[in-house]
Amino acid sequence: MTETDDIILDELDRKIIVATQSGLPLVSEPYAVIASQVNSSTDEVMRRTERMLAAGIIRRIGAVPNHYTLGFKGNGMTVWDIPDEKVTECGEKIGALDFVSHAYERPRHQPQWNYNLFAMVHGKDREEVEQKVQLIADMLGEDNRGHEILYSSRILKKTGLRLASTK
Amino acid sequence: MSLDLDEIDRAILNNYQGGFPICERPYLAVAEKLGISESELIERLQSMLEKKQLSRFGPMYHAERLGGGLSLCAMHIPEAEYERVNEQVNAFPEVAHNYARDHTFNMWFVLATETPERISTVLKEIEQTTGFKVYNMPKKKEFFIGLKFEV
Predict the structure, then answer these.
(1) Domain annotation covers residue B142
(2) Pairwise CA distance, residues B124 & B16, whole Å
(3) For A115, nearest residue in chain B (alpha carbons)
(4) Residue A167 falls inside a structural domain
(5) Given B1, B105, B141, which is nearest A124 (Cβ)?
(6) Backbone angles phi, psi at B96, to 5 degrees
(7) Shortest CA distance to B17 belongs to which of B63, B53, B69, B70?
(8) Number of domains forming the structure of chain B
(9) Quick check: A24 and B25 CB within 8 A?
(10) Could you tell me the residue range of the domain that residue A110 belongs to?
(11) Integer Cα distance of A59 and B67 in angstroms
């Protein structure tokens, strides 16, 4: 996915996004249902959807599994202090691991916060998460100047990301 | 793992975390590949959604490319002030989700705003309302997002 193929979203695209951001209708002809909601044709909605997928506006279309109910009860946000010049290389290595769902470089806030690489690590329990974190630490070797696992103790709010509907 | 998923549910989960076709009858197209009927596929997806085995089904949008602002923010709040600050932070509609974590940085939330410029404005409002510093940690680079995981 490149950053150079950005497209301009118009009113109809945004209506399609609003109509589908909570999911694709579970009916035989979902794009026809969306088309009727946005006052367009099925072909046009499919064409727009394909265009947004090709441009990376839509990351993918399909099932989004819920780690927790699927047995991955141990989810840890791991944070790593990596030399700035190594963060891309290390981020790519961590992102390629099959037990990591997200990996990002983020800014440090020194001296309170020295970590610049974040990775969500999933395991069936905390013990398995810790084993996997050790695997990452071994893989990174001396590029890792320190790391921690931040477990979530409570969900305080969860509304998901929503694009406001267009007028 | 003892999960209430049979072979077909697993095939759906493992093969269609992406790549669901865009056509007039996409469920029919996929059902044929799985060797089941269109209505059975729709029922299975409905059931997995109801049991929360799937968090959702459909297009997953790339939030930053929709033109809005998005950032991960962290705060460290003394235990005695935690509930008050939590209520104040959650009251901001721009706070999409918020997690308590076991760390001195004990509150982590995602800010989603209509425009990228709004992030710093809302951040300052949260600091003024709560009286605590907000550490802004927007994504600088993304290495991977998604799942390769199999059930």
Answers:
(1) no
(2) 41
(3) B137
(4) no
(5) B1
(6) -80, -50
(7) B53
(8) 2
(9) no
(10) 74-151
(11) 15
- The answer to whether residue B31 is domain-embedded is yes
Q: Which of residues 117-156 of A touch B (CB under 8 A)?
A: 118, 122, 124, 148, 150-156
In a domain, A45, yes or no: yes
Tell me the per-residue pLDDT of A16-73, one tens digit each, with 9 for 90 and over: 999 998 899 999 999 999 999 999 999 999 999 999 999 999 999 999 888 878 878 8
Rounded Cα distance between A98 and A68, Å, is 16
Closest CA to B149 of B15, B7, B3, B2: B15
Please, what is the average pLDDT of chain B?
92
Task: Answer yes or no: do B72 and B100 share one domain.
Answer: yes
B118: part of which helix (H) or strand (E)?
Answer: helix B118-130
Q: Determine the Cα–Cα distance for residues A45 and A51; give it in Å rounded to an integer.
A: 10
Amino acid occupying residue B51: K
Residue numbers in B near A161 (CB within 8 A): 61, 63, 70, 96, 110, 112
Q: What is this structure's pTM?
A: 0.80
CA neighbours closer than 13 Å in the CB half-sphere of residue A146: 5
Distance CA B121, CA A4 (A): 28
A76 touches chain B (CB under 8 A): no
Q: What are phi and psi of B113, to 5 degrees?
A: -120, 160
Contact A62, B18 (CB under 8 A): yes
Q: How far is A143 from chain B (nearest CA, A)?
A: 17
What whole-number distance in Å separates Cα of residue B151 and Cα of residue B84? 40
Task: Say yes or no for a CB contact (<8 Å) between A70 and B151.
Answer: yes
- Residue B57's Cβ-count burial label (10 Å; 0-12, 13-18, 19+) is buried
Tell me: do A23 and A85 sit in the same domain: no
